[in-house]
Structures are given as structure tokens and as C-alpha cells.
Amino acid sequence: MSVKVPKSVFSFFKKLEKNNNRDWFNANKPEFKSVEAEVKQVYQKLLERLEIHDNIDKLKLFRIYRDVRFSKNKLPYKTHFGGAFHRTKPRLRGGYYLHLQPNNESFIATGFWDPAKEDLLRIRKEFEMDDSEIRALLAQPDFNTVWGDTFEGDEVKTAPKGFSKTHKSIDLIKKKQYIFTKKFTDAEVLEADFLEHVDHAFKAIRPFFDYMSDVLTTDLNGVSLLDDEL
Q1: Would the N or C end of the chain have less CB density within 10 A of its end CB?
Q2: What b/e readout covers 135-149, taking b as 16+ CB neighbours within 10 angstroms?
Q3: How close are the terminal C-alpha atoms of the chain, in Å?
Q4: Please, what is the angle between helix 29-53 and helix 194-204, to 10°?
Q5: b/e for 36-50, b at 16 or more Cβ within 10 A?
């Protein structure tokens, strides 16, 4: 059965943007619950697509309530849906994210946006030792026509501790995140084949995930860190 993103997602959030308060939300909560139920079907259908060609450990659909405790922005509700698809660890690394937001702000993201400290160090050490494989991967037309040839994400200003700021791979080493994003217009999101396009993009990231999974499950000598292969 074909599942598509309903127009009600964008229309509801546009109203919420103008009435982001608890009184309005509580009065319109039945509408939100109806929209949320339809959106859950969209994320579930994408999960089913992903599971055809990948091993997904879980889908996490984020709640609409904002955590305002440490934020200057005290608006109580998010004006988007976000859902993350986690690959099965420890062998498989990386993850997928789908963000649905009106006003042409929808996007998909993939990669490593919050790597553990030890994983970040391992990635940097790999790039310090040999950057040829990752650069060849980023240069592949099948990959960069979908995701581009440059990592997005935060980075340190010069060089991480223990690394030379003049190293030939410092552009890779200084990254704190290794992510890619792809934006969609509202019209594109509402097309019947939107999930097909998303799934195609996520398939295109697999060479990168395969490479990074290999890096993060071996030491610098290529010896497996997984117990079942010791």
C-alpha cells in the first residue's frame, strides 16, 4: 500500500507556528493526534523500505514537546516532526533521519552527528593515517550527485589536541561531526513518490556507512574489535 505525507502535516504546523502556546495546543490536540497517527504510518513505511536493504535496530519518533529548561527559546512545542532510524550496533554504524517541516524546511540527514569520544578519535586517526579511501568514496558520482562531496557539521577551529594543524587531511580531522543533508520543498514532500526518493538517497550512503563501520570495528592495524571475531 502506498503511503504519502499528508497535507495536514504542514497545515497544522503553520497554525501552530502562529499559536505556539499550551492553551491553543490543548484545544487543538485532537487534530494533532490525527496528524501524528498519519505521520507515524509514513515513518513506519520508510522503516519497512530501509529494512529491505539494511538492518535497523529501532525507529525513534521524537515528541513534539520541546525541552525548554536550558533554552532561550521558551516556545513549548516543536513545529516539525523528526524521526531517527538507528542501524544495528556494534557491527553497523551510522543512522538516518527524516525531518518534516513546512515552508520548505524539510530535509533528510545521515552520517555521524554525535559520535562517541572514542569513535571520533578513531575516525580522526584513520584519516590521519590514510585519507585516500574516504576521498575516493566522496568523489564517486553515484554518491556525490545525491549527497555532495563535502562533510557538513561542526568542527574545531584549528586542530584537535594531538593532531597537527598542517596535516594534509586537517580538513577531515578537525570535523566533530560527519554528516550529510538533503533538503526538500513542501511540494516534493507531498508527492506520492517522496519516500521512494528518500529511500534512494539513503541507499546511496551505504558505501560510506560500510567504510565507517569497518573503521569503527577495527583498530589501526585492521584487527577486529568485535568479540565474535576475536
Answers
A1: N
A2: eebbeeeebeebbee
A3: 44
A4: 40
A5: beebeebbebbeebb
Annotate the chain with three-state secondary structure.
CCCCCCHHHHHHHHHHHHCCCHHHHHHCHHHHHHHHHHHHHHHHHHHHHHHHHCCEEEEEECCCECCCCCCCCCCCECCCEEEEEEECCCCCCCEEEEEECCCCCEEEEEEECCCCHHHHHHHHHHHHHCCHHHHHHHCCHHHHHHHCCCCECCECCCCCCCCCCCCCCHHHHCECCEEEEEEECHHHHCCCCHHHHHHHHHHHCHHHHHHHHHHHCECCCCCECCHHHC
C-alpha cell at 1: 500500500
pLDDT tens, N- to C-terminus, the chain (230 residues): 679 999 999 999 999 999 999 999 999 999 999 999 999 999 999 999 999 999 999 999 999 999 988 888 999 999 999 999 999 999 999 999 999 999 999 999 999 999 999 999 999 999 999 999 999 999 999 999 999 999 999 999 999 999 999 999 999 999 999 999 999 999 999 999 999 999 999 999 999 999 999 999 999 999 999 975 44
Alpha-carbon distances of 114 from 164, 173, 175, 223, rounded to whole Å: 23, 15, 11, 25
pTM above 0.90, yes or no: yes
